[in-house]
Amino acid sequence: MTYIITEPCVGVKDSSCVDVCPVDCIYTKDEDDMFYISPDECIDCAACEPVCPVTAIFAEDATPPQFAPYIPLNYDYFKNNDPADLKRK
Fold it and tell me: What is the pTM of this model?
């Protein structure tokens, strides 16, 4: 399981979650409008969830139904982007 960043992050891109992630698994590109959590690197520690100022981060299996489309969006992001080419902040 992984954590999912959802719609409230769009346009905000606050990096509080990045700063507390112990495994540096939260990525973005300059042109992205939000952050994404690598499902292969996330250790399910939940450190990112409580620090999100817009309540955009949820455990995958606890993602509210209205944000369910962000689950495949998060996975697809890493199918289309190599983490080595992405920024953490």
Answer: 0.92
Q: What are the structural domain ranges in the chain?
A: 3-85
pLDDT digits (tens, 9 = 90+) for 13-50: 999 999 999 999 999 988 999 999 999 999 999 999 99
Closest C-alpha to 36, from 83, 84, 69: 83
State the CB neighbour count (10 A cutoff) for residue 34.
19
Count of Cβ atoms closer than 10 Å to residue 80 Cβ: 7
Non-local (6+) Cβ contacts of 23 within 8 A are 41, 42, 43, 45
What does the DSSP 8-state code read for residue 54?
Answer: T
CATH of domain 3-85: 3.30.70.20
